Amino acid sequence: MNKTSNTLEKRLAKFQDLVPSKVPFVEGKLKGHQDRSNYSIVGPGVSEDSKQNVKIAEAHGFNIGAVSAAPLNGSGLHSHTTAEVFLIFSGSWRFYWGVDGKEGEVILNKGDVASFPTNMFRGFQNVSEDKEALMFVVLGENDPGVITWTPELLKKAKESGMILLEDNTLIDLEKKDIPDGKKPIEPVNDKELSSFDHYTSEEIEKYVIRYKDHLQYSVDDDHYNSNSIINYLDYFTIHDKKFDPNILHNTGFGLTMLKGKNAHIHPYSLNQSEVFLCYEGEWQITCDDEIVTIGPKDTFSSPKNSVRSIKNISDQEGSIFIVRQKNS
What we know:
The chain is mostly beta strands and 328 residues long. It has 2 domains: 17-209, Jelly Rolls; 212-325, Jelly Rolls. It is built from 5 helices and 27 strands. The chain is globular, with a radius of gyration of 20 Å.
């Protein structure tokens, strides 16, 4: 095989090499939101930090990022206009929602996946003793839009010296004044607040797949009994077999996990964006006769229309997430 080209190296995101933002959002100085890091891996995501490092900037039809946080730290109540799917890699995370954060909650643990609806306020925090719990986040569309914060959060952020402008620029008043001609963003009013959706904990559970239950969702792809497939979102086709989604949520992208000690996929080509995110084990990806190897927390984006194959090369069971641009 040929040595990996610079083109493919640029599509490889080793987690240890990623550069996080320490104050990615307007609530970055508030208690419970200070000790966390935000990573933009594929696409810019929704960070309000103009200096946020983006590893793979090419438009994919979706964005992939990551969040790590110390105990009892995380994100304040916010809403998105596009889908937001969470993949828990370590720690336990409490997700809570509603304008006051008291409508409901779920606790997600390692390996759990949750797809949260749009048009709802939600927040999350690390509720484990893990000093740096980690989860990855997949956001829908090339431009996932901007965040809508609750009025109470924007008020507290302003008291801490953090201002979000109408153009989504983040200003730290301790370092910089609001530029002439620029205005702070207006919080949503009571009428606008009433238009946001409400969910019970039971309703949100329909959007959650827990790893402890993975056997009930795993399907063999009839390929030498080596591949176990958990298909979360959108239809997934491989080895001439089509897998139905377990979460009925239109996100604009597909999400699948490939598991197994000898798991592999033979060469195929795809004209849509496809990203591999390693959960466990070590995986070798052959892409147009070049080889890329990824381990836990690493990400690789295959070029469109390239011929690629993948296999677990560790001596243990491996698991890898596959994110695909939504099938047309």
